[in-house]
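Moderator note: this is an archived Q&A kept for reference. The question asked for a predicted structure of one protein chain; the sequence and the answer are reproduced below.
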Amino acid sequence: MHAVLLSHDQHGANLDDAGRALLPSAGVVLTTVSGARASAATRGLAPWQDLRLAAAGRPDLRVTATPCRHGPPLSRPLAGAVTGFALRWPGQRHGALWISGDTVLYGGVRAVARRLRVGTAVLHLGGVRFPVTGPVR
């Protein structure tokens, strides 16, 4: 396993014990700045920060962290930090591969469409609800 893109690590439903046990076998784990403690090979990326991954015999992969919010406004203390990823490589013809991360729709996600040319999107969809903050809108 060369790399892991980890949207966030603070919930067992997203990174369980079996997944956590696999992290040390990855060449690099990319995640949030606060999640960078997951393993020695973990790199935390802030929104819009780029990192170039290189491996012998393979084209370089440019990874850009994209903004996410895991719940409604003011839920970050409960839900924690989360990130998405845009992947680009030489010869890519139709725009970045964007992995939204475990996010709700908000201004940061809309900024992805303004800042990046996305050719393919992998979207995390769900109906998160937090009793303290109310429904996501």
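Archived answer notes: The longest helix spans residues 107-115.
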